[in-house]
Design brief:
The complex is a heterodimer of chains A (172) and B (441). Chain A is of the alpha+beta class and 172 residues long. Chain A contains 3 helices and 5 strands. The chains are: A alpha+beta (172), B alpha/beta (441).
Chain lengths: 172, 441
């Protein structure tokens, strides 16, 4: 297993719309394992393939505190949405930024698991928020897109500043 | 997606791990600190520790407020209610904020059905707080802030000190550092702290200890990454002074992980220009990894091995030692102020097996102690069964063992050994007994 490089907003590659997975192969599973390693190391609770510059519809998630409930969604689709709720989100591609985003409160999901078996379930709370956030990535969307233009501008500035700081602190 | 979990829900998860699964709070929090937003880490710790510190009060309040029992699988909701009550009673968070954030924690726990319940219950507390708190005054564990069995044993063992033990166990412990004397002396490090505007008090009973006036994150400590300093309570720092290894000694730290005392022994030797060979054992590979990481940060070297010290045969396979430190597994009743979850995790039925294990360890190690050598027995317990009674029974078993009186100004002399009660001279509760193996020929 290896950790992959996570694309950082506003990288244009984050705008790529991912293609459906036609067949779940050993390579797919290897990618999934690497995505989990990357997500756990970050640390994060969800990661879309888009974020590691692979433009296939694959998402990995683990919202448990013990990091022992991995969830793989291949070609995920939200087939029903109910209610709305606002919660604070953060993103591994937009480090150190946390903003409130409105999402559906509960959703019904259909996807394939890591063996290519079809799965479907209803969920709410944290998991529903996370799934919606990750599917957005597959569609080339980032959570800051939901914020006001003023806030987006402020975030871009903050990220620029953070990057400069990081560069100046990576001495060789 | 990255960590932006409702911090109150996460505190509830950590507390559930303790009360539901017997996990230690420290472990649960370590796993959690990456899950919440960085700015919420402090709050997560304060709320989780706070609920443990005031567990009996909060638990009984929650039970009074709940009209029927929650299902066993809803312990997280009970925990969230306690997190809510803790904020309302013990924290200076505006009531409306505490209420709203706690109520929205139900969603984060994926139990939206509990929203109304938590909301109604916390509001009722605000309306009837005086009455409710009065009702709690008859509960023994609420008054003592610890389980009945432990209060009973402590009152019996320490009739004069019981009150102060109880208060110290509820208090916030100081953050205490041990300066790495292999690198620099205490005065030099205090000067460094001064440059960084970190106020400290020197701890006179130790040669390398300083107490911070208020706790800071370790990465704020100058030279932490370069191993100039470690975090360790003053009581634990005394072990290396008592064992005082000299040139050529092979010294064993028998239950070494996470390695604080191993490092302190090496620093003692460096400060006194003694060449001591330190061997560190523990029965957990995982914990030994932490020990190795800690030693490498400090620039120390020790011979490390995974050994179960209660297994005499395993112990006998590694040669003999001039000095042995046995920091034995114990009830940890002396460090409740640092680990308030001990009040919940420890059961009265744990004591007998612990005492047996300690005795087995003492006997196994005695066999590999060279005649003329010293064994230092240490616990962070304040129960006589694990301390004076344990050593008295050991002395009656081993004909070639005798006690070396510890003459010092800290703690209090016992029938055998010396006891520090929690909070005495600002230290954790600790017990030490120094034993000499006589030459019988």
């Amino acid at each position: 297993m290896m950790t992959l490089k996570i694309l950082k907003y506003p990288d244009p590659r984050l705008r790529t719309v991912a293609k459906p997975v036609t067949e779940v192969t050993d390579e797919t599973r290897e990618l999934i394992d690497n995505m989990f390693a990357t997500m756990y190391a970050a640390p994060g609770i969800g990661l879309a393939a888009t974020q590691v510059d692979v433009h296939e519809r694959i998402v990995v998630i683990d919202i448990s505190a013990e990091k022992d409930e991995p969830l793989v969604l291949i070609n995920p689709e939200i087939i029903a949405k109910n209610g709305t709720e606002v919660s604070e989100e953060g993103c591994l591609s937009v480090p150190s930024i946390y903003e409130k985003v409105e999402r559906a409160e509960s959703i019904s999901v259909q996807a394939l698991d890591r063996n290519g078996q079809s799965i479907s379930f209803d969920t709410g709370g944290m998991l529903a928020v996370c799934i919606q956030h990750e599917i957005d990535h597959l569609d080339g969307k980032v959570f800051v897109d939901y914020l006001s233009p003023l806030k987006q501008k402020r975030i871009s500035k903050k990220i620029e500043k953070n990057q400069k700081f990081e560069e100046s602190h990576t001495a060789f | 997606m990255s960590n932006s979990i409702n911090v109150r829900a996460q505190a509830a998860r950590c507390i559930t791990a303790v009360i539901g699964e017997g996990e230690s709070l420290t472990t649960a929090l370590e796993l959690s600190r990456s899950v919440v937003a960085p700015r919420d880490v402090g709050l997560l710790y304060e709320m989780s520790f706070g609920v443990m510190r005031h567990y009996y009060q909060l638990y009984h309040l929650a039970r009074l407020l709940l009209s029927k029992n929650l299902k066993p699988r809803d312990k997280d909701i009970l925990a969230l209610i306690m997190v809510g009550l803790y904020q309302l009673i013990h924290m200076r968070i505006p009531n409306h904020a505490a209420l709203n954030e706690t109520v929205s924690g139900t969603k984060n726990l994926s139990k939206p059905w509990a929203r109304g319940l938590v909301n109604a219950l916390l509001r009722r507390y605000l309306r009837e707080s005086e009455d409710l708190l009065t009702k709690l005054k008859s509960k023994a564990d609420v008054v003592a802030e610890m389980p009945e069995w432990l209060a009973r044993r402590l009152k019996k063992a320490w009739p004069d000190d019981w009150q102060s033990i109880q208060q110290a166990s509820q208090s916030h412990p100081p953050m205490t550092l041990r300066v790495n004397r292999a690198q620099l002396d205490r005065a030099a490090y205090v000067a460094l702290l001064d440059e960084h505007d970190i106020p400290v008090n020197v701890i006179d009973s130790t040669p390398a200890g300083v107490a911070l006036v208020s706790a800071v994150n370790v990465d704020k400590l100058p030279g932490f990454d370069e191993g100039k300093v470690s975090v360790q309570d003053a009581a634990a720092q005394l072990a290396c002074e008592l064992l005082a290894p000299v040139d050529g000694d092979r010294v064993l730290d028998a239950c070494a992980a996470p390695g604080g005392k191993t490092a302190a022994l090496l620093e003692y030797a460096a400060a006194h220009n003694e060449q001591a060979k330190v061997v560190a054992w523990d029965n957990s590979e995982q914990r030994l990894q932490r020990l190795k990481d800690g030693l490498s940060r400090l620039g120390h070297e020790a011979e490390v091995a995974c050994v179960d010290v209660s297994d005499a045969k395993a112990v006998s396979a590694h040669g003999e030692f001039e000095r042995i430190l046995l920091d034995a597994p114990c009830s940890a009743t002396g460090v409740i102020r640092r680990h308030p979850d001990i009040k919940l995790l420890r059961r009265e039925t744990d004591i007998v097996p612990l005492v047996k294990t300690q005795a087995a360890m003492l006997d196994a190690l005695w066999a590999v102690l060279k005649p003329g050598g010293y064994l230092l027995y240490a616990t962070c317990s304040i129960l006589p069964d694990e301390n004076t009674l344990q050593i008295e029974s050991f002395l009656s078993r081993q004909a070639d063992a005798s006690e070396v009186m510890i003459k010092t100004n800290w703690g209090q002399a016992q029938g055998v050994g010396r006891q520090i009660l929690p909070g005495q001279q600002g230290m954790d509760g600790f017990y030490y007994a120094l034993l000499e193996k006589r030459n019988i020929s």
